[in-house]
Design brief:
- The protein has 5 helices and 4 strands; from the N terminus they run αααβββαβα.
- A hairpin with a 4-residue loop joins strand 2 and strand 3.
- The longest helix has 14 residues.
- It has one domain: VSR Endonuclease (Endonuclease, Chain A).
- The chain has a 4-stranded mixed beta sheet, sandwiched between helices.
- By secondary structure, it is an alpha+beta fold.
Length: 150
């Protein structure tokens, strides 16, 4: 903490610098700050999508999803968008791990745990076809033997 002035107060920049949390080891502080501030384009779209889901009504309404949900115990992976009560998740392609190596491992772990894993591109997120696919996954029948751990 910087040394206070004679009146015992800190300037706002001094206070902000002194209380700024240090990023965890291995975390990109710029990306972390953008995500926390909601600056990331994908996160902004995901939040828009969550609000859109919450506004749906009727028997095939889509409940408000969880964003960046930790759905597979023992794994660090976070699902982009998830409906834990239905064990359905939606992965938005082309995020941080553009090579797909991380997304595939995440999707495989989720599928083994009993999740229905759907994919879309950021531009397809609010399209009627994507919403219909999610409605089918949430409200449709589950295949026998794929109940997962609820």
């Amino acid at each position: 903490m910087p040394k206070p002035r004679a009146d015992g107060l800190l300037t706002l920049p001094e206070y902000m610098a002194a209380t700024k949390p240090k990023p965890a080891k291995g975390v990109d502080p710029v990306r972390s700050a953008k995500v926390k501030a909601g600056i990331s384009g994908s996160l902004r779209k995901a939040r828009q999508f969550a609000d859109h889901c919450a506004a749906t009504v009727g028997p095939r309404a889509i409940p408000r999803p969880e964003l960046e949900y930790h759905g597979v115990p023992g794994r660090k992976y976070r699902m982009d968008i998830a409906w834990p009560e239905s064990m359905v998740c939606l992965e938005i392609e082309g995020g941080t791990w553009k090579g797909g190596r991380h997304d595939h491992a995440k999707a495989n772990a989720a599928a083994i745990a009993g999740w229905r894993v759907l994919y879309c591109k950021p531009a397809e997120l609010l399209k009627p076809e994507t919403l219909a696919l999610i409605q089918d996954a949430i409200h449709g029948p589950r295949p026998a033997g794929n109940e997962g751990e609820r």
